[in-house]
């Protein structure tokens, strides 16, 4: 039986009743000069859980494994990836396509902020235009010899996540959570959307899992005890990492030095991603 869209689709460009699934040859093709081996979307059911930081740390983890990594910042109206990596300058290209901007550690980045005169300029666009830009990040950018392309999604289950899941063939998604009790509902939304779109879920990463005292190293559960293991068991998902609230992480992200973070707390996630190569 077809899975159909039954909501008001005036903004997402889908006809009500249309089958939301796509076969392999119906996905948008990347640029002819691109080589992308694995594409992973990083999602969250709500904002404020540190999804972009998790995307950045995952990218650093895979780069340290010797893989060439790219990041497509699909959070068009709230881009933060360039700042975390200290990436500035303009995206340049030719008639064949445009090239991402490389970080100090060689991670390729494309973000709306790299197209703006000032990184504080707002992007005041409606959903269809934003979705169109995300597609261009896929089809117009030349992702040269990229082993892992991470797509940093905006929060929720709206236009951009729908566009990405419908238009880009994903190897899977990683869901970012936080310890609050309401996270069970938030994870459920992301899980159900992925199921509807037939996209594999690689696992869960919990951010702000605990506060790590910089003096004694003791762990304090600021948001209460974690529910991650129960949620993972309920939905039969792997726990790929727990990231603490650590001053060093925030300081280095703000300074554009995320690639210098020593312990990225995502070793299990990196091993899960390496399994895609088998």
Explained architecture:
- The protein is an alpha/beta fold.
- Helices cover 28% and strands 18% of the residues.
- Helix 3 (127-139) runs parallel beside helix 4.
- The longest helix is centred in the first third of the chain and has 14 residues, at 51-64.
- It is globular, with a radius of gyration of 18 Å.
- Residues 1-24 have low confidence and may be disordered.
Tally the helices: what do you get? 8
Question: What shape does the CA trace take?
Answer: globular
Structural category: alpha/beta
Which band does the percent of strand residues land in? 15-25%
Report the sheet with the most strands, covering strand number, pairing sense and barrel closure.
Answer: 8 strands, mixed
Strand order of the largest sheet: 5-6-2-7-1-8-9-12
| Low-confidence segments | 1-24
Radius of gyration: 18 Å
Cα-to-Cα separation, first versus last residue: 32 Å
**Average pLDDT across residues?**
87
**Overall strand count:** 12
Element-by-element helix/strand order:
EHEHEEEEHEHEHEEEHEHH
Binned, the helix content reads 25-40%
Compact overview of the structure:
With 278 residues, the chain is α/β, with parallel strands linked by helices. It has helices at residues 51-64, 81-85, 127-139, 159-167, 183-196, 228-235, 247-254, 267-274, and strands at residues 36-43, 69-73, 92-94, 97-99, 101-102, 108-110, 146-152, 172-177, 201-206, 211-212, 219-220, 239-242.
Q: Which labels suit this protein?
A:
globular, 8 helices, 278 residues, eight-stranded mixed β-sheet, alpha/beta, disordered N terminus, 18% strand
């Amino acid at each position: 039986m077809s899975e159909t869209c039954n909501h008001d689709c005036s903004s997402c460009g889908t006809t009500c009743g249309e089958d939301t699934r796509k076969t392999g040859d119906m996905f948008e093709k990347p640029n002819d000069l691109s080589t992308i081996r694995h594409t992973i979307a990083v999602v969250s059911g709500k904002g404020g859980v540190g999804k972009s930081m998790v995307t950045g740390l995952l990218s650093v983890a895979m780069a340290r494994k010797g893989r060439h990594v790219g990041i497509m910042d699909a959070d068009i109206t709230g881009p933060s990836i360039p700042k975390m990596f200290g990436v500035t300058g303009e995206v340049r290209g030719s008639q064949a396509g445009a090239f991402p901007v490389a970080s100090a550690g060689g991670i390729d980045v494309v973000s709306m902020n790299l197209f703006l005169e000032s990184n504080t300029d707002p992007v005041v666009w409606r959903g269809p235009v934003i979705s169109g830009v995300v597609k261009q990040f896929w089809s117009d950018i030349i992702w040269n010899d990229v082993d892992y392309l991470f797509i940093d999604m905006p929060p929720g289950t709206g236009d951009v996540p729908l566009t990405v899941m419908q238009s880009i063939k994903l190897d899977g998604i990683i869901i970012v959570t936080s310890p609050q009790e309401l996270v069970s509902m938030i994870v459920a939304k992301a899980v159900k959307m992925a199921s509807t779109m037939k996209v594999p879920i690689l696992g869960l990463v919990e951010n702000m899992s605990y506060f790590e005292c910089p003096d004694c190293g003791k762990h304090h559960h600021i948001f209460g005890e974690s529910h991650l293991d129960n949620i993972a068991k309920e939905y039969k998902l792997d726990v790929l990492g727990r990231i603490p609230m650590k001053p060093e992480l925030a300081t280095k992200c703000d300074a554009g030095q995320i690639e210098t973070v020593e312990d990225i707390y995502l070793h299990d996630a990196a091993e899960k991603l390496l399994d895609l190569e088998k």
